[in-house]
Design goal:
- This protein has twelve helices and five strands.
- With about 210 residues, the chain is an alpha/beta fold.
- The chain folds into two domains: about 130 residues, HAD superfamily/HAD-like (Rossmann fold), CATH 3.40.50; about 70 residues, no CATH class.
- Helix 1 crosses helix 5 and helix 2 crosses helix 4.
- It is globular, with a radius of gyration of 18 Å.
- Bound molecules: magnesium ion.
- The site of magnesium ion (MG) has 7 residues, from loops.
Length: about 210
């Protein structure tokens, strides 16, 4: 559980896997449609990482240091002749749906007078696609920090600090409640002094958030 502290003034939420159905559902649809299995894709990512002598291509994509096209090119080079990733974004987004109960819960949080921001590791070229999943996004979130537009990604503490800075009003980490489906991202938030709830399912996450919010 989270430690008691200052009253929470802002909730900072992840997007994928929290405000959407589990990402694995969208990836499974892609694997089925393309015939490229998760193992194969994983091996291609590992090989592309090694070849570039640098970072995981997905991390580079999420930081906006490579384009979606370059990301595809690097993976296709590892997958071998004739294997294309062209269908990835379309199949993925056709099967990525909003997690309505959680979106609704955050709408309610905003209505309770708390500030609500989004901190997402995402892909620059996908912005219109993921935003379309939440038509009233700008009514719920006063701020969106998207990794691909700021050149850093969770769990880098700098992107959490940037989010606080952009929220302004001298908001401290102790006044924020962070919500994410990845432990590593929640751990980074806690290191900075935020309270964090790791999303597992709607019921659990809402109960844990309510315990913090009181
Ligand atoms: Mg996520």
């Amino acid at each position: 559980m989270t430690p008691a502290g200052q009253p929470v003034r802002a909730v900072i939420s992840d997007f994928g896997g929290v405000l959407t159905v589990p990402l694995v559902e969208a990836f499974t649809a892609y694997h089925e449609a393309s015939g490229i299995g998760p193992g194969e894709l994983g091996r291609a990512m590992a090989a592309a990482t090694e070849r570039s002598g640098g970072e995981h291509p997905l991390f580079e994509l999420e930081k906006g240091t490579i384009s979606e096209r370059e990301f595809q090119r690097r993976l296709e080079a590892e997958l071998g002749d004739g294997v294309g990733l062209a269908g990835l974004r379309d199949t993925y987004f056709a099967n990525l749906h909003a997690n309505e109960p959680m979106v609704d819960y955050l709408r309610g949080i905003r209505a309770r007078g708390l500030r609500v921001a989004m901190l997402t590791n995402n892909v620059r070229e996908w912005e219109p696609l993921w935003r379309a999943k939440l038509p009233d996004l700008d009514d719920i979130f006063e701020l969106v920090v998207d990794s691909a537009f700021v050149g850093m990604r969770k769990p880098d503490p700098a992107i959490y600090r940037l989010t606080l800075e952009r929220l302004g009003e001298g908001l401290g980490p102790g006044e924020c409640l962070f919500l994410d489906d990845l432990d590593v991202n929640c751990d980074a938030a806690r290191e900075l002094g935020m309270r964090a709830v790791r999303f597992v399912d709607n019921e659990q996450a809402i109960a844990e958030m309510e315990a913090v919010l009181g």
